[in-house]
Amino acid sequence: MPKLAPLFARAPSAARRRWLVAAAASAAALLRIDAHAAPRVIKVHARRFVFAPDHIALAPHEQVVFEITAQDTTMGFSIPQFGVRADVPPGTVVKLAATAGDAGTVPFLCDIFCGSGHESMNGVIVVG
Ligand SMILES: [Cu+2]
Q: Lesser CB count within 10 Å: N end or C end of the chain?
């Protein structure tokens, strides 16, 4: 691989400008690819009567995919404010896409009755 400094020392300034423009275009293309990168994956595990994690931090308007598993019985994973929910049977990985809204605190919860602690099975997404 040629060393860059001697290359520039020998190259005419027009060629050097073309090289710099091409390098800048490549960098810009990489930034565009990064902007459209796959959504962040967030794993959430549900068991009676706990979600782990039960606090999740998202950036405003961030697109994510929750990968949800359940340990002992079919659970529901619901984020009413984001308009998404899923049944989560044990032994499967359920993928649920969601997009955060503006900054704020958003509750999520189990919406399938799973036992005597079901009513307290919830968590919080902090968008900010
Ligand atoms: Cu439940």
A: N
